Amino acid sequence: MTMMERPDLAAELRAAILAADPRLSKFAPLRRILAYDDFNSGSHGWTELLGNYNGNGDLSTVDDHMRDFRPPQLSNCTFFDVGTHGAMTGSYALKLATRAYRGHTATAIRRLTMSGRGLLQIEAYFTYKAEATIDGSAGDRFGDITWDGNLHPSEAQFGCFTVATDLCGDGGLRYHTVARYLNTTLDNTLSRQWVYPIVPEPTPREHLEGKVELAYGADFTAPDPKDWRPFGEPQELCYNEVPTKVNWHYLRWVIDTAARRNVELQVNDRIMDMSEVPVPPYKERYDSLENLLNFYFSVRTHSTVRNFLFLDSVLISTEW
Amino acid sequence: MRQVQTAVLERDTTFVSDFATEPYEVAWAGEARWFVHILAASGDGVSVRLVTQISPDGLTWCDLDGDEQVVTGPGLVTWPVGQFGQWLRLRGTVTGVNPSAKLRIYLTVKS
User: Fold this and answer.
1) 20 to 30 Å CA-CA from B48: which of A100, A141, A154, A185?
2) With a CB-CB cutoff of 8 Å, which residues 244-263 of chain A face chain B?
3) In degrees, to the nearest 5, what angle opens at C-alpha B23 toward C-alphas B21 and B25?
4) Spatial distance between the Cα atoms of B50 and B48, rounded to a whole number of angstroms
5) pLDDT by residue (tens digit) across B15-38?
6) Beta partners for B38?
7) Tell me: the pLDDT tens digits for A80-131?
8) What is the DSSP secondary-structure string of A105-131?
9) Smallest Cβ distance to B11: which of A41, A67, A76?
């Protein structure tokens, strides 16, 4: 057998090798795997996002809305009722946890650079929960959910989670791509809608220049709710009734850094075309960020209940 | 190689009354150590009493032991923590006349 007889032999071999590896066979990586993050072996560079500070390291100069995004945690998903749930791959997941403060956001960011241009993909197995309330203060109703033995008010206490990039290159042209699952609106009504912002994220430089000033708890990705638009149809995920059962979901998101465009988002069995979702660049150029390639996940509570985003594993791959 | 992680649970926070830090999961770790950097303190007789707390579920808390650290002015204090289970947090009691303490609280955990 020769390459002439089997011109796709290399692709077949690659597929067979991936399929035979239980760590990778649950993913569909592009040509080059930049990062495979299994959180049984640490946090793999996923760290807390923090706003910028002045030359003296004076953290009081950090923007109020970017000073408290909380450190990610390695969690074995332990709950008050069943004890340790564990993750999908082994014991540990990366956990992002908000404060119990309406509007508060927790983040985890991974910082890389681009060694080429083209398709860029992030895949993850994730789940999301609101913290259980066990002190008798919660009641059986929250938002538009009344406990009926199936739907649980906890589900309405979960606000949204986001996956996004921060990209820059080609002379300081900086832009973000963003996909957010809006589980509930700000008034705690189930929305279950994927949304994107039509404006770039406010930056510390814009604050320093007096263009923007945001309060603690503001939505750092795009603070005005009117700047968010839906894409795709509403998608019901598997919250699984109560706040202490975790079911892992698959996410695969592709962007094109050559065209500076979104491509598509897959979440479980739903593939959403994002090619028409705009990617607004910053009008001004940025220094010190050449070939910036950051991914972040965030979770934001729309209630006074802590919200959690758990990542079992993450894989970042490229076509370059 | 052992895993080590440092979390900044409070970064530049001014406390004027009693507080507890956010829960932090440390199930994977065998040892831990608090570093509390008192960046500034004011108020007559100001003091902050710091006690390690543990929890089985991240919801309900009790003191780990009888030890407490008392800080009254700028500086760095540290103490080790062991036998802690799955979660750690720090409980602080702020006393004095118009007391105020600006703290940076690090939790360093090691497998």
Assistant:
1) A100
2) none
3) 140
4) 6
5) 999 999 999 999 999 999 999 999
6) B75, B103
7) 999 999 999 999 999 999 999 999 999 999 999 999 999 999 999 999 999 9
8) EEEEEEEEE-SS-SEEEEEEEEEEEEP
9) A67
